[in-house]
Write a structure and sequence with these properties.
With 342 residues, the protein is mostly helical. The chain is built from 16 helices and no strands.
């Protein structure tokens, strides 16, 4: 897209990008809200829920009881996770689940270089695969296997790659999103976007399939809510809501807190977290609109809605977001060409 910009717009994009990078490098250090050492964490909560299930309790009884004991909210019903991941953990064990998560990351690293448009060089494709692995390394950590957001992000990334890859069957992203929706409702925007794009492109069969998946998920969510209700007490805590996002800083901090970037100085880490945006803007709109809209939508949601302690929503963009790093040199070249054009 950058190569086709008129000169004034290209100059504006360049100035905005430079200003944003300068802001990142000069931004004062602000720690991400994390649990202190020894604090009861979400990962421990989900492992304890599975332990109770292994002792014979139902998922909903175990989850609501465990959340109540450790002062987690159980209202509204979305504060209790969908049961699929924890049923699997109770059936096959956390270790096998961890290997499946690693396999998803490897699949992303192999498919993304193939999915990118044909004009890219072999070096850019190799860089994309490497960026996918580095960006998703934390997602495949055994310690984070109980986090539904890591699974959702890996499946969203795979669905985005299939939607970009012209040789992939049309139902491949549908299967990925169906799996993601069975784990976390946060994959729903991708399904809605895919249905809208299929309708706009006149793909009736795909539109019907996405619409059917959304309807099936809505029905499952109703059963999920009804299954929780008998286990919720009037004295249970309610969630404080999700409306205290921190804007662009919150988005960048979420990307830093969920990747190896947290090991770098904060200003440099924020700049590196922002740079993939330049790479993604090199995609042609007609080819990459599904991926671009997906990234923009989830980035906006992370910037606006989560609380400061919900930084782990950054996993929803991983490892897809950092694949754009491999395209940064191309983005800089396209932007320079657009600016120098008479």
């Amino acid at each position: 897209m950058l190569a086709r910009l008129p000169r004034p717009y290209a100059l504006l994009v360049a100035l905005l990008l430079l200003a944003a990078l300068g802001w990142c490098l000069a931004a004062p250090r602000q720690e991400i809200a994390k649990a202190p050492p020894g604090h009861y964490t979400d990962m421990r909560l989900y492992r304890d829920v599975v332990q109770r299930m292994d002792r014979g309790e139902s998922y909903y009884a175990a989850a609501t009881a465990q959340q109540r004991v450790h002062h987690y909210p159980t209202k509204p019903f979305v504060t209790v996770r969908l049961p699929t991941l924890y049923w699997l953990a109770s059936t096959i064990g956390w270790a096998r689940l961890g290997w499946i998560e690693i396999a998803l990351l490897i699949a992303n690293g192999l498919i993304w270089p193939l999915a990118l448009p044909g004009l890219l060089t072999w070096a850019e494709r190799l860089g994309t695969g490497l960026a996918i692995f580095l960006g998703g390394l934390a997602s495949a950590s055994p310690a984070l296997t109980p986090m539904s957001e890591t699974w959702c992000g890996l499946l969203l990334a795979l669905a985005a790659a299939f939607s970009l890859w012209r040789k992939a069957p049309w139902w491949a992203p549908l299967l990925c999103i169906a799996a993601a929706l069975s784990i976390r409702e946060l994959a729903l925007p991708f399904a809605v976007l895919s249905a809208v794009l299929a309708s706009a492109d006149g793909k009736k069969r795909e539109f019907a399939a996405w619409l059917g998946l959304i309807a099936l998920f809505a029905l499952g969510l109703v059963f999920h809510a009804r299954a929780i209700t008998p286990h919720v007490l009037a004295s249970d805590l309610s969630s404080p809501g999700w409306s205290s996002g921190l804007g662009p800083r919150g988005l960048l901090q979420a990307l830093i807190g969920t990747t190896l970037l947290h090991m770098l100085p904060r200003g440099l880490a924020m700049a590196l977290a922002l740079l993939p945006l330049l790479g993604w803007l090199t995609l042609d709109w007609r080819t990459g609109k599904a991926v671009l809209l997906c990234l923009a939508g989830y980035a906006l949601a992370i910037a606006l809605f989560p609380r400061p302690d919900n930084f782990y929503w950054g996993f929803l963009l991983l490892p897809t977001w950092f694949a754009g790093l491999a395209l940064v040199p191309r983005g800089a070249w396209q932007l320079g060409r657009a600016i120098s054009r008479r």
